[in-house]
Amino acid sequence: MNLLAEFAARHYGVFRLEHARMLGVSGRQIDRARSRGELVPLFGDTYRFAAAPPTWRGELLAACWAGGFRSFASHRAAAALHGLPGADRITPEITCPRWRRSHHDGLLVHELTGVVFDEDVVSVDGIPTAS
Q: What's the pTM value of the predicted model, to 2 decimals?
């Protein structure tokens, strides 16, 4: 769990179950940590360590990860990350590739075709974000 905690510390305290598995943490260890209140479930298979303070950026990164491959912060959330007027930090807002739309409570999800990921998406504070 130490490697996972170090990984999460670099990512606003959040991680996916896939990250845990890649770092050698078993599902049983995750279940125990959840039952002890050490992990807070976010969206789908994303979690935050309870010791890490909840942040808007952490929740948004977890939303992007829960959205699946090539999901990114978009619309008002992307505007907030870019510091633009009219931005909104209330609801995490992401875009997913068409037909891979993710459904999670508390998450506003759009789907889109034709995104050129390398040109249309940039990293802002470590979060994949619409440019």
A: 0.91
